[in-house]
Amino acid sequence: MADLPRRFFISGTDTDIGKTFVSALCVAGLSAMYWKPVQTGFPPDRDRDTVQRLTGLGDGHFFPERFCFTEPLSPHRAAEKEGRFIRLSDFVLPDSGSRHLVVEGAGGVLVPLADDLYMTDLIRHLDLPVLLVCRTGLGTLNHTFLSVEALKNRGIPIAGIVANGPFHRDNLEDLTLMTGVPLLVHVPFVANLSEVDMAVLFRTCFYSRQV
Ligand SMILES: Nc1ncnc2c1ncn2[C@@H]1O[C@H](COP(=O)(O)OP(=O)(O)OP(=O)(O)O)[C@@H](O)[C@H]1O
Ligand SMILES: C[C@H](N)[C@H](N)CCCCCC(=O)O
Ligand SMILES: [Mg+2]
User: Fold this and answer.
1) CA distance linking residue 75 with residue 20, whole number of Å
2) pLDDT the model gives residue 209
3) Does the CB atom of residue 186 touch ligand 1 within 6 A?
4) Which one of 24, 118, 179, 207 is most buried, by most CB atoms within 10 A?
5) H or E element: which one contains 67?
6) Active site annotated at which positions (predicted)?
7) Residues designated as active site
């Protein structure tokens, strides 16, 4: 099984890349706790609810967001539109006890939380290793290499890459060979989410290595 730390931060190479989907996999497969520190576009978007729907787990697996903003924007702009301000001191990592803890970011690794405050600053503040979610197709090499460089340059440990989407052997090999970051797992595209058992899919993905 791909080694996963007890507590980790799921970031990605972009928004809409599959962080919540991969979070749901990990929460289901590890019976973990889930925390989305900053949610924008709520309502209607709430990743916490999506993870609960996909996993079928009870409220006890979910910590409340530290910030929810209405506008579906970058957190710094969403906060500004509500006259609010995000500071690092606002964030305290919740205690998940003996359970795994999955923390999901918003967008990619350098999304701004405020002027001169970025998602990477939050990751370092929480002192968590990163699972970096990327797409599998054309374009992922550049996006992933840029994200890996941003994390490495800030001394943020990367637990591994999660390649999310249709299988692409060359890209999956290059992603790890050219970054030195382990490819933890390839998550396939699931056509019918209503029929998938996320815990089973987690074990299928994380216990059997495809490349
Ligand atoms: N492997 C997959 N199979 C099927 N659908 C997927 C898969 N990965 C992601 N999706 C779908 O793609 C959409 C975007 O995924 P997701 O919400 O996880 O992105 P995100 O990175 O969490 O976005 P945000 O930055 O807003 O948090 C969702 O509708 C999700 O269900
Ligand atoms: C609204 C969206 N679903 C995310 N929650 C926030 C994504 C911020 C992306 C900012 C950017 O990289 O341009
Ligand atoms: Mg999400």
Assistant:
1) 17
2) 53
3) no
4) 24
5) strand 67-68
6) 36
7) 36
Is 16 assigned to a binding site?
yes
Q: Please indicate if the annotation marks 82 as binding a ligand.
A: no
Of 146, 141, 140, 105, residue with least CA distance to 125: 105
- For residues 50-62, one letter each, b for 16 or more C-beta atoms within 10 angstroms of the residue's C-beta and e for the rest, the string is bbbebbebeeebb
pLDDT at position 160, please? 97
Classify domain 7-207 at the CATH topology level: Rossmann fold (3.40.50)
How far is the centre of ligand 2, averaged over its atoms, from the C-alpha of 211 (Å)?
A: 31
Q: Ligand 1 in contact with 15 (CB < 6 A)?
A: yes
Overall residue count recorded for the chain in this entry: 211
The pLDDT tens digits of the residues spanning 79-123 come to 999 999 999 999 999 999 999 999 999 999 999 999 999 999 999
The annotation status of 17 as a binding-site residue, yes or no, is yes
Distance separating alpha carbons of residues 107 and 16, to the nearest angstrom: 7
Residue-wise pLDDT tens digits, 170-181: 999 999 999 999
- Separation CA 200–CA 168 (nearest Å): 22
Q: Ligand 1 centroid to 179 CA: how many Å?
A: 24
ipTM of predicted complex: 0.98
Each residue's pLDDT tens digit, 13-70: 999 999 999 999 999 999 999 999 999 999 999 999 999 999 999 999 999 999 999 9
Answer whether 18 contacts ligand 1 (Cβ < 6 A).
Answer: yes
Which ligand is located closest to the Cα atom of residue 147? Answer: 2
Tell me if residue 52 falls in helix, strand or coil: helix
Domains of the chain, residue spans: 7-207
